[in-house]
Amino acid sequence: MRTTNKYESFVSNVTKWGIDHLGVFPWRFCEDSYKILITEILLVRTSRDKVNAIWQDFFARFPTISALAKSTPSEISSIIHPLGLQRIRASQILELAIRLVEELDGIVPLNIDALARLKGVGQYVASATICFLTGEKTLVIDSNINRVIDRFFSGEDHDNYKSSMTILERILPLDNLDVRMFYFSLIDLGYEYCRRVPDCEKCVLRTSCSYNIHRH
DNA sequence: ATCCAGTCAC
DNA sequence: GTGACTGGAT
To answer: Which parts of the protein come within 7 Å of strand C, by CB position?
Structure first.
C-alpha cells in the first residue's frame, strides 16, 4: 500500500468537489475547436455569466469559422457588446477567422505555439483551448487557478505564476488525473470561494489549505 | 478613487 | 519591461 502525497490529495479533493458543483456551460466539454477558441477569447477579462448570455446567439449566427469570416466588425460587435471590449475583440475575432480560413483552411491549429502565434491568442488562451478540447495535459494558469494553488500550497499570494507552474508540473503527470475536470473544478473553486477576499469557511479545501490554516 | 485582469503594441 | 483596452470589485 502507498500513501497519497499532497498533490494527489489536492487533486482528489478538488475533483471530488467538482463532480457535484461544477458550473454547467455550453463551452465545457464542447467538441468544436472553433467554439472553444473563440469562447476562451471572449472569456478574457469577462465574466462567465456575460459570455453565457450571448453564447447561443453568437454561435447560432456564426456556426463555423467561415461564417464568422464573412461577417463584419459591426455585426460581431453588436452581438458581443454586452461583454465590453467589443470593438477591439470584434475586429480581432474577425481578423482571426479570416486568417484561419485563408491560411489554414479554416482549421484551428492544435498545438500551443501555432495557436499563440495568432493575433489575439496568447499563451493562456492557446493552452486552455488545447487542454479543454483534447484533454491534453497542458499548463493552464490564469489568475484564479494561480490564486487557489498559491494559497493552498504556500499560504500566500504571489505576483507571478512561477510557483503555480512548478506545482502544476508535478500534478499533471499523475495517473488517473482527469485534467479537464481538475481545471474546471479549480476554476470554479476560485470563483466560488477563493476570491481576492476569500470565503474560507465555506471552502471544501479549508482543512488542508495553507492559507486558511496559517492565517490564525 | 484605485486596483485588477490576458493580450498586444510599444 | 510599461501602458492601454473596459468593466467589475473593493
So the answer is: A 45, 47, 50, 84-85, 87-88, 195-197
Cell of A63: 456556426
Q: What is the pLDDT of residue A86?
A: 86
> Which residues touch A151 (CB under 8 Å, ≥6 apart)?
A157, A194, A198, A209, A210, A211, A212
What is the tens place of the pLDDT at every residue in A127-165? Answer: 999 999 999 999 999 999 999 999 999 998 887 888 899
Nucleotide nearest to A161 (CA to C1'): B6
What's the CA–C1' distance between A3 and C4, in Å? 50
Give nucleotides in strand B with any atom < 7 A to a protein C-beta. 4-9
CATH 1.10.1760.20 correct for A33-134: no
**Model confidence at A216: pLDDT above 70:** no
What is A6-24+139-214's CATH number? 1.10.1670.10
Footprint of strand B on the protein (CB under 7 A): A 44-45, 85, 116, 118-126, 142-144
Contacts of A184 (CB under 8 A, 6+ apart): A18, A22, A23, A28
pLDDT of A110 > 60? The answer is: yes
The residue that minimises its CA distance to C1' of B9 is A119
Cell of A41: 477569447
Helices (H), A135-201: 143-154, 162-171, 179-192
Average pLDDT over residues A29-56: 91
| Residue whose CA lies closest to nucleotide B5 C1' | A45
Domain with CATH 1.10.340.30 in chain A: 33-134
